[in-house]
Amino acid sequence: MNQAPSPTTDHPPPESSPPPSSDRELLSGSVADFGRLFDRYAAQLHRYCSRRIGPDLADDVVAETFLIAYERRCSFDPSRSSGLPWLYGIATNVLHRHRKAEARAHRILTYQGDSADIVAETATERTDAAARIRTIARVLGALPRRHRDVIFLAAAGLEYAEIAAALAIPVGTVRSRLHRARARLRWALDHSDVPTIVRSGHAEAS
């Protein structure tokens, strides 16, 4: 006598966890997750570094920045939603080791077009960039490093609070340093032969 086949129970496949997406999750995840963080922010950091020391050395600075970030990923404050200010802070510290390269970049104006964005507001203003850049580079090179840091971070699009987080300084200090740096740029440009309007910048609007 044939036995009826025993009923089978269909087990749904186990649900896979969604891949980590927040910076906090990527920093606490696998090596592959950290690679996604690199893909997310490397281009922005490279533009920032290129403005300060030129594109060739920027490659090395960005690579070192992410190496340090990986080694120190456990020190990232999990209460922060974005890891970008933290990465900018690391990159800025790495850039400080390249003071001579940055001074040379100011002298030879390797970042002419990008630096114009700090003070130029429209395409019409940028037509005079060649003359203004010489003034800008001279002023930036003469600024104290702490003032140069905030103005380049502001030019990169960081808000006041993000700059403060990147440099581990109070927001009020960011405002003060940025105001002084831009005041020196305004004065230098006002006393040059090239008319311009100093750009207020993304951070100043916050």
Automatic annotation (TrEMBL):
Keywords, alphabetical: Sigma factor, Transcription, Transcription regulation
SUPFAM superfamilies cross-referenced by the UniProt entry: Sigma2 domain of RNA polymerase sigma factors, Sigma3 and sigma4 domains of RNA polymerase sigma factors
GO molecular function terms listed in the Swiss-Prot or TrEMBL record: DNA binding; sigma factor activity
UniProt entry tagged with the keyword Transcription regulation: yes
Segments of skewed composition (Pro residues): 10-21
Domain called HTH luxR-type: residue spans: 157-184
Keyword flag Transcription: yes
GO biological process terms held by the UniProt record: DNA-templated transcription initiation
Annotated region described as Disordered, given as residue ranges: 1-26
Family of the protein in this entry: Belongs to the sigma-70 factor family. ECF subfamily.
Protein name per Swiss-Prot or TrEMBL: RNA polymerase sigma-70 factor (ECF subfamily)
